[in-house]
Amino acid sequence: MSDDNTETSVSSKIVYVLHHPSSSRIYIGQSSKGLKRPRQHGMGCYLRSCAASPRTKWIRALRERGFDYEITVLEVCRSKAELDEAECFYISYFRSLNIPLLNLTDGGDGTVGYVFTPEHCLRISKALSGCVREPDFGVRISKALTGKPRSAEVRAGIAAAAKQRWDKIVQTESGRDHMRRMTKRAKEVWADPKRRTQLLANCAARRPRSVETRAKLSASLQGKVKSLEHREKLRQALKERWADPTFRETSLRLQREGREKKRAKTP
Questions:
Q1: How far apart are CA 74 and CA 4, in angstroms?
Q2: Are 23 and 101 in contact (CB under 8 A)?
Q3: Residue-level pLDDT, tens digit, the chain, 267 residues
Q4: Helix boundaries (H) for 110-244
Q5: Among 35, 165, 222, 246, which is most exposed with the fewest C-beta within 10 angstroms?
Q6: Can you tell me the distance from the alpha carbon of 199 to that of 192, in angstroms, rounded to the nearest whole number?
């Protein structure tokens, strides 16, 4: 493959196009790692993992004829929001010119515009079944993240990105249908006494909060007054949960254990 821009002259956040003079088809993409992302499309592991995508088939067809795709940077951006907006613009623009694009979505962060068929969903399910992570995978991730400070700017960025993803989900019918399925599944799990008991036990055995964390939570709640409507909803919800024998028994047991631990610590 060839690059129309050198590594040192390209910002980390770019919108690029994959193309070749012998083909009328193109692919628009975005990268937050400069030219590293567009170059990865031609690597063996990516060609195998995305074998069914039009982009991969196009790259393979080029190489069978002795060619390779070229990379051209369309725009350099300063933020993720600009990156998403620019990618959506170029995909829409080239489609308006009736240029055959290899893109399956409308651009931006996610799979907006792409509808998975039932057969596709089944293939994904079969491909993921049997994939087991190493026993210490979660432990290693936890150790890597424990104690890693995040600046206020990073936290604000994470919050903004999460809100943007949520807004995209609730704005589409497929997203709302996904949320309905998740809600239905959660209700089914909660209706199972064994699963409910396990969930409550997991909550009770969660990692204890530090003194600093408890102090921050307490300070954030100071002065916040719940409305009458809010308090009534909480009362009704607690009343319904308390009517469940399993929940009531578990709550009383945890209260007894808490009192016993407190008495044991008292000299």
A1: 10
A2: no
A3: 666 554 444 568 899 999 999 999 999 999 988 999 999 999 988 888 888 889 999 999 999 999 999 999 999 988 888 888 889 888 888 888 888 999 988 887 655 555 667 777 777 777 767 666 677 777 787 777 777 777 888 788 888 888 887 777 777 777 788 788 888 888 888 888 888 777 777 766 666 777 888 888 888 888 888 888 888 888 888 888 888 888 888 888 888 888 888 888 776
A4: 118-128, 137-145, 152-171, 173-191, 193-204, 211-221, 228-242
A5: 222
A6: 11
